[in-house]
Write a structure and sequence with these properties.
By secondary structure, the protein is α+β, with helices and mostly antiparallel strands. It contains 2 helices and 6 strands, in the order αββββββα. Helices cover 34% and strands 20% of the residues.
Length: 79
């Protein structure tokens, strides 16, 4: 995965795009835990437990608990 990140970073630079590593996280969607640290541009990436993607909140187990909880908060705020 670090090799893929390296190649991706090279592509970004070639196209004059830059990744803000301090805002970048990664999440593994697998049953087995990987303990290898992921890096981008020689900086360690933070491993996230959940993220918002296209308006949906997902966690590393692909469960809906986080999304449902967030929707409930929004509905309660609107009432």
């Amino acid at each position: 995965m670090n090799q893929d990140l390296y190649q991706l970073n090279n592509w970004f630079r070639a196209n004059q795009l830059y990744v803000n590593v301090s805002k970048t996280k990664y999440m593994l969607l697998e049953k087995q835990q990987s303990h290898e640290q992921k890096t981008l541009d020689d900086e360690e990436l933070e491993r996230g437990q959940r993220t918002k993607f296209l308006g949906l909140y997902i966690d590393k187990h692909l469960q809906w608990n986080c999304h449902v909880s967030n929707c409930r908060k929004k509905v309660a705020y609107m009432q």
